[in-house]
């Protein structure tokens, strides 16, 4: 097993940073006090913030063309857990890991649970995978899974999702996330309505197998692997399916699954309004499902999404309890570094959204003062809340500077020795 980051190293590194952090924190505290904001209340909220890490994000991703394996990348779920533990030890806001089955399937789930417990990690949403065939699979998903024209293929896909629920129960998860690659590549290839009917029928069978305290999250995606139409193409099809299924079915928003320039924050608001916001897959994108690091391109969009989320929290919106998760693919960076950076970036958006003066914004909105509405949001967004994030990590035993501390630890080099390259350099999304 790869050695975790030594607590003494975290303490040593923090020691070097502490004086400067305290100065910056105090200065920010004064600035916020002038706006009647108590920095301690905001830091307490930052400490409560949690975002799950995708198990598949700890490995090096690839594209349709190739994959360049990273040094010491995890070869199985046990090693993915080790990396996730490192991320959480340093970041202190990622105590949950979201598994993907059958990629992460093991023969003994109680052993897996014991291992995660020993690392202070919990399990997030279970992601089912019916977008590829497994070795020796009797009926192919080449032409779809839950919406396949072949009932036997549909049954296989349904059964896999029901299995996912069983495995999830053993891990203590409470959510099943369903994303399917079903769709078509040619106009006319598929009868839109019949295909959606088949999908809904399959989903109803899965929904019937959902424990009463679970949720099912439906994830829409505009294209890929189907390039002409997908069965759950957009949030419209998504919410329709969720409404058709029942209260335990909700919609999941993956930021990269929309056309460029789509107003995602408004989609979020609509889903909140109708109690259908299940959760998020955070990432950033320039062209499509790029799965880039959260906040690396559109930090303002990410902030505007959190503006809606914090607004719902502020108004005690009924049925509001979305799940936050990262869904990224890291091709050219160390995935551990990208995931730590991304978790902090999403946390940053949340904290900045807490600074919005909401009574003031409502007043400006009522008076149609568009410029001051915008400035109210920008004022919060432009406040550098870095000291709050660093202090929140420090107070929870994490690193003031997670990347620097991680690099200092030599964890990746050591992983490289203990996890020789598997030679898997074929193409593939993850
Ligand atoms: C998809 C989608 C799903 C994820 C797979 C790996 O594009 O985002 O959430 O499970 O990729
Ligand atoms: Mn996703
Ligand atoms: Mn995706």
Explain the overall architecture.
The structure is a single chain. With 430 residues, the chain is an alpha/beta fold. 48% of the residues lie in helices and 8% in strands. The chain has helices at residues 7-34, 39-48, 77-91, 109-118, 151-171, 192-208, 235-245, 264-273, 299-314, 335-354, 358-366, 370-381, 386-395, 402-409, 411-418, and strands at 53-54, 96-98, 100-101, 122-123, 126-128, 175-178, 183-184, 215-219, 229-230, 249-254, 277-281. The longest helix has 28 residues, at 7-34. Bound molecules: beta-L-rhamnopyranose and manganese (II) ion (2 copies). The site of one manganese (II) ion has 6 residues, from loops.
The overall pLDDT average reads 97
Structural class: alpha/beta
Tell me which ligands are bound: beta-L-rhamnopyranose, manganese (II) ion
Order of strands across the biggest sheet?
A: 3-5-6-8-10-11
Shape: globular
Helix content: 40-55%
Number of helices: 15
Number of strands: 11
Instruction: State the low-pLDDT regions, or none.
Output: none
Largest sheet: 6 strands, parallel
Instruction: Classify the beta-strand content into a percent band.
Output: 5-15%
Radius of gyration over C-alpha positions, nearest whole angstrom: 22 Å
Element order, helices and strands?
HHEHEEHEEHEEHEEHEHEHHHHHHH
Q: Ends: how far apart?
A: 23 Å
């Amino acid at each position: 097993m790869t050695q975790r980051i030594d607590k003494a190293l975290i303490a040593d590194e923090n020691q070097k940073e502490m004086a400067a952090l305290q100065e910056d924190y105090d200065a920010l505290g004064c600035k916020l006090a002038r706006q009647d904001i108590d920095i301690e209340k905001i830091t307490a909220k930052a400490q409560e913030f949690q975002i799950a890490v995708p198990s598949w994000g700890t490995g090096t991703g690839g594209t349709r063309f190739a994959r360049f394996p990273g040094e010491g990348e995890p070869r199985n779920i046990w090693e993915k857990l080790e990396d996730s533990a490192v991320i959480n030890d340093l970041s202190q806001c990622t105590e949950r890991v979201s598994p993907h089955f059958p990629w992460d399937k093991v023969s003994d789930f109680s052993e897996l649970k014991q291992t995660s417990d020993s690392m202070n990690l919990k399990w997030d949403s279970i992601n089912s995978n019916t977008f590829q065939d497994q070795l020796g699979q009797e009926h192919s998903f080449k032409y779809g899974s839950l919406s396949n024209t072949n009932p036997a293929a549909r049954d296989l896909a349904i059964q896999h999702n029901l299995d996912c629920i069983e495995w999830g129960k053993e891990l203590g998860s409470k959510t099943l996330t369903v994303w399917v690659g079903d769709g078509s590549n040619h106009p006319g290839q598929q009868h839109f309505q019949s295909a959606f009917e088949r999908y809904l029928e399959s989903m109803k069978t899965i929904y019937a197998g959902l424990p009463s305290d679970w949720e099912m999250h439906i994830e829409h995606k505009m294209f890929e692997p189907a390039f002409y139409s997908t069965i759950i193409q957009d949030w419209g099809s998504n919410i329709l399916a969720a409404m058709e299924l029942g209260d335990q079915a909700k919609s999941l928003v993956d930021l990269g699954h929309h056309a460029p320039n789509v107003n995602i924050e408004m989609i979020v608001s609509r889903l909140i309004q109708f109690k259908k916001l299940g959760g998020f897959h955070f990432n950033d994108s320039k062209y499509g499902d790029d799965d880039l690091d959260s906040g690396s391109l559109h930090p303002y969009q990410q902030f505007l999404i959190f503006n809606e989320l914090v607004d719902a929290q502020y108004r005690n919106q009924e049925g509001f309890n979305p799940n936050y998760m990262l869904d990224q693919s890291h091709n050219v960076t160390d995935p551990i570094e990208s995931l730590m950076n991304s978790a902090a970036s999403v946390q940053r958006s949340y904290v900045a959204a807490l600074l919005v003066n909401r009574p003031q914004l409502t007043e400006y909105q009522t008076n149609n003062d568009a410029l001051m509405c915008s400035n109210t949001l920008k004022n919060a967004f432009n406040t550098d809340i870095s000291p709050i994030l660093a202090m929140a990590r420090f107070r929870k035993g994490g690193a003031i500077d997670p990347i620097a501390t991680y690099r200092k630890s030599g964890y990746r080099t050591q992983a490289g020795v203990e996890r020789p390259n598997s030679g898997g350099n074929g193409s593939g999304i993850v």
